């Protein structure tokens, strides 16, 4: 007679979580797949055994301040896999704190020891599929690395639409000659996400640390060959000089002239450049512009408040008169500030 197998406490806890959680396998429709689990162990431990739907963000990197762009947004639920060598309660407390009144959405925490991974393997559930390596050297290769971070939701919504509108059936994620120009690229999440979809990206910022983080994130996800960083303060150069610098970065000896150029700006605004871009013939095929609008100064945050840093209602539509306007909407951030959601295509 077969004996009934007795479940361990970790198996029972894992089973209860799998039965009750609302988290499912992410479906993002292209680019780097999103992770469910934040694995806080060191890279070597992660390499030996990990969940397929996990991303490795070691606590040491978080403590050094090097992992900000790798962490999930506060609005995204995730599960913590704690480092068993360290105080687990302290790790939970770290992700229970809020930031400016916005808490993390920590769904659950499991201790990342052998018993946990054995329980996951026994569960036979795609959400906790285990990947093991006999050799514990090195880290997961770039194509296996998932992301907890997210691109801006507006870009994630509208760039696929721009792909269909400008390239149609000619779009491929492996051989595209299409180029994105990212104005004010920051730490590079939007740039790396676009590159993972097959775009070449010119990421422009005057923050050297941000550009270094952009390159590191691109290397981590295996798209560094598709991302070119450009260190320039767009407000301190003539418009002609700006276009010359960007054109030189877009077209170089290693890359042929792009078939399509999309310029996007997320929370970046330089009005003279915006107006010049709209009027410039044969440069951009499409624009995606997401920025703070008039009304932010009256919000609880109170900034930005200067006219040069705020878009007026209809300002983008007026600037891009003659383009096909795909959307000209206003979104409200969780903190109450209005932002533009503007997409236009030059036919």
Nutshell version of this structure?
The longest helix has 14 residues. This protein has eleven helices and 15 strands. It folds into two domains: 136 residues, 3-Layer(aba) Sandwich (Oxidized Rhodanese, domain 1), CATH 3.40.250; 193 residues, Rossmann fold.
What does this structure look like?
- The protein is α/β, with parallel strands linked by helices and 347 residues long.
- It has 2 domains: 136 residues, 3-Layer(aba) Sandwich (Oxidized Rhodanese, domain 1), CATH 3.40.250.10; 193 residues, Rossmann fold, CATH 3.40.50.150.
- Helices cover 29% and strands 20% of the residues.
- It contains 11 helices and 15 strands.
- The protein has a 7-stranded mixed sheet, with helices on both faces. The chain has a 4-stranded parallel sheet with strand order 3-1-4-7. A two-stranded antiparallel sheet has the order 2-8.
- Helix 1 packs across helix 5.
- It is globular.
- InterPro entries: Methyltransf_25, SAM-dependent_MTases_sf.
- This is Methyltransferase domain-containing protein.
- It holds the Pfam family Methyltransf_25.
């Amino acid at each position: 007679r077969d004996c009934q197998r007795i479940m361990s406490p970790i198996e029972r806890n894992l089973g209860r979580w799998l039965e009750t959680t609302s988290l499912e396998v992410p479906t993002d429709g292209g680019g780097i797949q999103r992770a469910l689990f934040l694995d806080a162990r060191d890279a070597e431990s992660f390499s030996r055994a990990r969940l397929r739907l996990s991303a490795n963000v070691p606590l040491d990197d978080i403590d050094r301040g090097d992992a900000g762009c790798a962490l999930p947004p506060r609005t995204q639920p995730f599960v913590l896999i704690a480092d068993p060598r360290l105080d687990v309660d302290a790790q939970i407390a770290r992700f229970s704190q809020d930031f400016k009144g916005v808490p993390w959405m920590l769904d659950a925490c499991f201790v990342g020891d052998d018993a946990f991974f054995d329980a996951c393997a026994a569960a036979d559930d795609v959400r906790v599929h285990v990947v093991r390596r006999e050799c514990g050297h090195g880290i997961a290769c770039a194509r296996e690395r998932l992301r907890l971070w997210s691109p801006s939701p507006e870009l994630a919504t509208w760039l696929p639409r721009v792909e269909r509108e400008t390239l149609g059936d000619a779009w491929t994620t492996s051989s595209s000659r299409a180029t994105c120009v990212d104005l004010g690229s920051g730490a590079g999440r939007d740039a790396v996400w676009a590159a993972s979809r097959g775009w070449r990206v010119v990421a422009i910022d005057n923050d050297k640390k941000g550009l270094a983080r952009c390159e590191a994130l691109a290397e981590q996800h295996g798209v560094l060959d598709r991302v070119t960083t450009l260190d320039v303060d767009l407000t301190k150069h003539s418009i002609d000089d700006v276009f010359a610098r960007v054109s030189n970065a877009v077209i170089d000896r290693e890359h042929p002239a792009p078939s399509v150029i999309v310029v996007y700006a997320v929370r970046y605004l330089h009005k003279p450049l915006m107006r010049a871009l709209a009027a410039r013939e044969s440069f951009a095929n499409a624009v995606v512009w997401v920025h703070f609008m008039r009304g932010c100064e009256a919000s609880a945050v109170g900034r930005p408040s200067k006219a040069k840093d705020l878009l007026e209602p209809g300002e983008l539509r007026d600037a891009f008169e003659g383009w096909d306007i795909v959307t000209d909407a206003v979104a409200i951030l969780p903190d109450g500030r209005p932002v533009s959601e503007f997409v236009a295509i030059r036919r």
